[in-house]
Design goal:
Layout lengths: L3 E5 L3 E4 L6 H8 L14 H18 L3 E6 L4 E9 L12 E6 L8 H16 L4 E7 L3 H9 L3 E7 L11 E8 H7 L1 H4 L9 E3 L2
Antiparallel strand pairs: 1-2, 1-9, 2-3, 3-4, 4-5, 6-8, 7-8
Helix pairs in contact: 1-2
Length: 203
């Protein structure tokens, strides 16, 4: 693409990464509560590497795991967006939606709002035929977001990146087709008012 997609929802701005996002992102990834359903918290170097991959993905495709910024405070609070996961997953090749927010911003509906905006990009802007989501079986809060998004459960699988026998290796898979999204009414699902359209900027 010739630029990067950035967009607003009612309370959030989803954008490309900046160098100043590294510190709050590292704090988020070091929080044991935030990382409860991952094998372990991330070191600063590991967190920075994730941020670099997210930024590179957006630069290359024009979309990816965007930084989520609270519009009222202009504070980066985590990431949400779309990504192409590893090829050895049973649902691959596919595009997944994912999110990770700082604990101080839980319970406000931000994950669902940001994810609805990302789905709008995926289905309306990119014309994807399907978007998937997956999470460790015990991660009921994340699964609840998937259900609120209208995604449909499609069984479980063993995540190849997690050791055999690890309690987080079994993952739940959810799917949402473009047809189902449109049937739900994309405008009501977007989380964005009509006067806050998706915007495109060039890096």
């Amino acid at each position: 693409m010739d630029g990067c997609i950035e967009f607003d929802t009612e309370r959030l701005h989803l954008r490309q990464w900046r160098s100043t996002d590294r510190e709050p992102f590292a704090q988020l990834n070091a929080d044991p509560r935030v990382m409860e359903f991952f094998p372990e918290p991330l070191s600063r170097a590991e967190s920075d590497a994730v941020a670099d991959r997210c930024a590179q993905g957006i630069e290359e495709r024009g979309w990816g795991f965007w930084v989520v910024e609270e519009r009222a405070s202009e504070t980066p609070i985590g990431f949400t967006g779309l990504s192409v996961p590893r090829p050895d997953l049973p649902c691959s090749p596919c595009v997944e939606i994912g999110w990770r927010l700082a604990r101080a911003y839980w319970g406000r509906g931000y994950a669902t709002e940001a994810a609805r905006g990302a789905l709008r990009v995926g289905f309306e802007r990119l014309a994807l035929s399907e978007i998937v989501a997956f999470t460790a079986v015990p991660n009921l809060p994340s699964e609840a977001v998937m259900k609120r998004l209208g995604m449909v459960a499609d069984g479980t699988f063993e995540h190849p990146a997690i050791a055999v026998g690890h309690p987080l290796r079994p993952h739940k898979l959810y799917r949402l087709t473009r047809e189902a999204w449109l049937a739900q009414g994309a405008e009501s699902q977007s989380g964005a008012p009509k006067k806050a359209p998706l915007t495109k900027t060039t890096l």
